C-alpha cells in the first residue's frame, strides 16, 4: 500500500522545523520532508482538486491563508498569501462547490469561505458563550471542529468551550443555524471532534475533557444518545486529554488518541447498534495529537516526540501493530483534511 498526505509541524521554541511536511507511505515505511518552512504559526490544512490551503497566524497576530497549487503527484507550488479576519483552526469541505467551511476557536466563529481567485468570507456565525466548568478550555467559546454532512446541505460545529454541537443548513453558501437540532453535552465534558458513520445513522462525539466517546443515533425526529464509553484504560490515573478521532472508510473501526496515557485506541463498531467495543490499546510517542487513516493504516502525530508513527489494523484479530516511524518532524499536530 502506498499513499501520500501532508502534516503540520509547530516547530521548536525558536521556530525551527515549523511548517508543512509532505508524508509518503510505501511498503509499510514512512518518510516525511519539510516542504514549506514558515515563520508564522501554521493552522489547519485542507485540499481541493488542485489546491491546498493552510491557515496561519502571523507574528503580529494577523491571521491569513496560504494557497498552493497541488498536482496529481502531490507536488506543491506556493501561489499566494492573503490575510483574513479570523485564524481558521478547522476546515471543512462543501462538496461540488468552490467554498470551504472554517471554524476558529481563537475567534469563536464558524465561516464559509469562497476560494475563487481571492478568498472571501461569505458567511459568519458567532458562537454564544455560556459558563460551564472552571477548566481553562471552557473560559470562552471554543469551536474546535466543523464538518459538512454528506448531503452537502447541512453541517455541524463542535464547541468544546460550551459543551455544545450546533447544526446548520447550508443555503446559497451561507450558514443558517437550525435551532431545534443540537447536542447539549454533559457539563464540563468538553466535546472536541465528531465523526459520522458512512450510512449516516450514527455520530461519534469525542470529549477532550472527560476522556470519553458518546455515540448518538441520528433519527428523522431527533438525536438519541445510545452509549458513552471511556477512552482510558481502567488503571490509568495520570492526567489525560483526548485529541485525535477518526473512522475507517468502511465504518468498521473508530480510533482515538490519548495525550497523557500516550496511546492509540481501537474501537470496533457494531454496525447494527452503533455501539463501540474496545479492541486494542497501543503505546504511542509522547503527546499523540491528530491521526490520519488510509484504508487500515494509521499515522499518528506524536507531538512531544517529534515523530510520525505508522500503525496498521489486523482486521482478523482486531489488533494494532506499529509498522514504522519517522523522526525529525518538529512538533507535528495535524494532517491534511
Please name the defining characteristics of this protein.
4-stranded antiparallel β-sheet, mainly beta, 337 residues
- In terms of DSSP E residues, the strand content is over 45%
Spatial arrangement of strands, main beta sheet: 3-2-1-28
Radius of gyration: 19 Å
Q: What is the end-to-end distance?
A: 20 Å
Instruction: Pick out the low-confidence regions.
Output: none
The string of secondary-structure elements, in order, is EEEEEEEEEEEEEEEEEEEEEEEEEEEE
Number of helices: 0
Helix content: under 10%
- Secondary structure class reads mainly beta
**Nearest-integer average pLDDT:** 96
User: Tell me about the biggest sheet?
Assistant: 4 strands, antiparallel
Count of beta strands: 28
Coarse morphology: globular
Helix-strand blueprint:
Layout: E1 2-9, E2 19-26, E3 29-37, E4 41-47, E5 51-57, E6 63-70, E7 76-83, E8 90-93, E9 99-104, E10 109-114, E11 120-126, E12 143-148, E13 154-159, E14 164-171, E15 174-184, E16 191-196, E17 202-207, E18 212-219, E19 222-230, E20 241-247, E21 253-259, E22 263-269, E23 276-283, E24 288-294, E25 297-302, E26 307-314, E27 319-327, E28 332-335
Antiparallel strand pairs: 1-2, 1-28, 2-3, 4-5, 5-6, 6-7, 8-9, 9-10, 10-11, 12-13, 13-14, 14-15, 16-17, 17-18, 18-19, 20-21, 21-22, 22-23, 24-25, 25-26, 26-27
Amino acid at each position: 500500500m502506498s499513499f501520500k498526505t501532508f502534516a503540520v509541524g509547530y516547530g521548536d521554541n525558536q521556530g525551527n522545523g515549523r511548517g508543512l511536511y509532505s508524508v509518503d507511505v510505501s511498503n509499510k515505511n514512512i518518510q516525511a520532508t519539510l516542504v514549506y518552512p514558515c515563520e508564522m504559526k501554521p493552522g489547519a490544512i485542507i485540499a481541493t482538486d488542485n489546491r491546498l490551503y493552510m491557515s496561519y497566524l502571523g507574528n503580529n497576530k494577523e491571521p491569513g491563508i496560504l494557497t498552493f497549487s497541488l498536482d496529481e503527484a502531490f507536488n506543491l507550488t506556493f501561489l499566494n498569501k492573503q490575510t483574513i479576519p479570523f485564524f481558521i483552526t478547522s476546515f471543512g469541505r462543501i462538496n461540488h462547490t468552490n467554498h470551504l467551511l472554517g471554524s476558529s476557536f481563537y475567534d469563536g466563529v464558524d465561516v464559509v469561505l469562497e476560494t475563487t481567485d481571492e478568498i472571501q468570507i461569505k458567511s459568519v456565525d458567532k458562537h454564544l458563550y455560556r459558563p460551564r466548568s472552571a477548566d481553562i478550555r471552557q473560559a470562552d467559546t471554543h469551536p474546535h471542529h466543523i464538518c459538512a454532512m454528506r448531503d452537502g446541505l447541512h453541517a455541524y460545529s463542535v464547541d468544546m468551550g460550551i459543551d455544545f454541537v450546533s447544526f446548520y443548513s447550508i443555503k446559497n453558501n451561507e450558514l443558517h443555524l437550525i435551532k431545534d437540532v443540537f447536542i447539549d453535552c454533559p457539563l464540563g465534558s468538553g466535546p472536541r471532534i465528531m465523526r459520522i458513520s458512512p450510512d449516516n445513522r450514527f455520530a461519534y462525539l469525542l470529549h477532550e475533557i472527560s476522556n470519553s466517546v458518546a455515540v448518538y443515533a441520528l433519527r428523522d425526529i431527533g438525536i438519541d444518545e445510545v452509549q458513552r464509553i471511556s477512552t482510558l484504560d481502567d488503571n490509568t490515573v495520570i492526567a489525560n486529554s483526548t485529541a485525535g478521532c477518526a473512522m475507517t472508510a468502511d465504518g468498521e473501526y473508530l480510533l482515538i488518541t490519548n495525550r497523557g496515557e500516550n496511546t492509540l485506541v481501537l474501537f470496533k463498531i457494531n454496525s447494527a447498534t452503533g455501539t463501540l467495543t474496545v479492541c486494542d490499546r497501543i503505546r504511542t510517542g509522547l503527546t499523540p495529537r491528530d491521526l490520519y487513516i488510509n484504508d487500515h493504516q494509521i499515522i499518528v502525530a506524536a507531538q512531544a516526540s517529534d515523530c510520525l508513527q505508522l500503525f496498521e489494523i489486523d482486521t482478523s484479530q482486531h489488533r494494532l501493530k506499529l509498522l514504522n516511524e519517522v523522526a525529525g518532524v518538529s512538533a507535528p499536530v495535524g494532517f491534511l483534511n
